[in-house]
Amino acid sequence: MDMQLTLSDYLSGVASGTFSPAEVLYHYQNKAKEKNTDLFAFLRFHDEYVAQHKDSAFSAPLRWAPIAIKDNIMTEGYISSCASKMLEHYVAPYSATCFSRLEAAGALMLWKTNMDEFAMGSSTEYSAFWPTKNPYGVDRIPGGSSGGSAAAVAADLCLAALGTDTGGSIRQPAALCGIVGLKPTYGRISRYGVQSMASSFDQIGTLTKTVADARILLGVISGYDPKDLQTSEKSDVTSFLTPSLRKPKDIRIAVPNQAFNEALDKRVEDLFRKKIEKLQTLWYQVEFVDFPLLEKVSTVYYLLIPAEVTSNLARFDGVKYGLQEEMQGCKNLLEYYSKVRNDGFSNEVKKRLLLGNYVVTHENYEKYYKKWLQARIWAQREFSKFFTQYDVVITPTTPTPASKLWEKLTNPLLMYLEDMYTVTANIAKIPAMSIPMGMVEDRGDQLPVGLQLMGNHWDEGTLLDIAEQIEERS
């Protein structure tokens, strides 16, 4: 039996008695274990969790819905390793708020998904354990850092998944795996209990098979949390739970001219232009505009991110936090610190730590870090002005389809270019999502690519409405 259910299908089927929650749950448990040897979407299986929690979840709204959880989202009593040797055996002492809200709604954790170590990467090749593979080609990357969650949803190994997005880490793998990825407004969902990469950029979001499913999950995990002071009362869910009745002719869509650049693959560009033409024939107000901010802000991202990484990972010294090793062979504490961090962190993490330490040194703080903080504030203001004229901005989600495994590891610049369209939303702290745009052929494989939509602060409702309309009319 192969169910291929969306979350909406599941809830309708359970309500009508078409199938039982137990039947669906056990189906996905077995299927995930069977297929994981091919895709490596999951790091660990926790059947004991399901056994312990299914009775309490039965009468709640999501009724045992099997949801996959990214490995940097803490789950009390279970390992949350961030796919790193540094935290390989770390058992979370409490659960993240987003996960607790899922539990309260009746969802069950269908294991922890693979990711780039500490969310640093765009391919899930930087996992300390093994790379995840794309369901559309097992020699292809699924994107990252939420690549395990994206692959699990795309391969129908769960109904939906949670991920985190620092510069595109939900939207980019969603695009490369042909599913829907949503990063909400910064502060919409509590970050409490999520192991941070860069605290002022990270945001929890959803990976789903449809836009309707994204709306359901967002409604469950959103809301003010006194444990995270970055959350806001504006995160009231009533603003986006129900689709609006706006007509295409009333929706203003901006297409930045800067989206068409030399890094954009011609096949992706052709598909994007066809999508724009389709929207115009459906009477959407589509306008090509100059928006240089799209090109300028990527440098802000790549200087600020390492600085925050350096701060967040400084505590992993092998004494209070992180990998615990014997001091044998170490002459002093400094040598021990060096040994622990060398053994516990991969080269990609070390590279970002070195750059971050350079940026925040006394002589460089004013020259780089402070100026880029000011640039970020400017970018946020520019976006706010822009959305007084337009409802959404659309771009491709990624400039290329999924590359072959290991193909870009020797050229970090090519890897970083995968985030060229997505980092803007994290800098501006606005909501953004990726929906499937179509398929392109690459070296014998048919591969999905995505369409990105960016909206105004706290306006996930408009973003979801337009995405759902485009999804239905595609």
Description:
This protein has 474 residues and is α/β, with parallel strands linked by helices. The chain has a domain at 7-239: Amidase signature (AS) domain (Amidase signature (AS) enzymes, Alpha-Beta Complex). It is 39% helix and 14% strand. The chain has 15 helices and eleven strands. The protein has helices at residues 7-16, 21-39, 47-57, 97-104, 147-154, 171-177, 211-221, 266-281, 293-312, 333-344, 347-359, 362-386, 412-417, 423-428, 460-473; strands at 42-44, 66-70, 108-113, 160-165, 180-183, 203-208, 252-256, 285-289, 392-396, 432-442, 445-454. An eleven-stranded mixed beta sheet has the order 1-3-2-4-6-5-10-11-9-7-8, with helices on both faces. Strand 7, helix 8 and strand 8 form a beta-alpha-beta unit. Helix 7 (211-221) packs antiparallel against helix 15 (460-473), helix 9 (293-312) packs across helix 11 (347-359) and helix 9 (293-312) packs across helix 12. The chain is globular and about 70 Å long. The mean pLDDT is 92.
Short descriptors:
single chain; 474 residues; alpha/beta; Amidase signature (AS) enzymes; 11-stranded mixed β-sheet; 15 helices; 39% helix
Topology, element by element:
Elements: H1 7-16, H2 21-39, E1 42-44, H3 47-57, E2 66-70, H4 97-104, E3 108-113, H5 147-154, E4 160-165, H6 171-177, E5 180-183, E6 203-208, H7 211-221, E7 252-256, H8 266-281, E8 285-289, H9 293-312, H10 333-344, H11 347-359, H12 362-386, E9 392-396, H13 412-417, H14 423-428, E10 432-442, E11 445-454, H15 460-473
Parallel strand pairs: 2-3, 2-4, 7-8, 7-9
Antiparallel strand pairs: 1-3, 4-6, 5-6, 5-10, 9-11, 10-11
Helix pairs in contact: 7-15, 9-11, 9-12
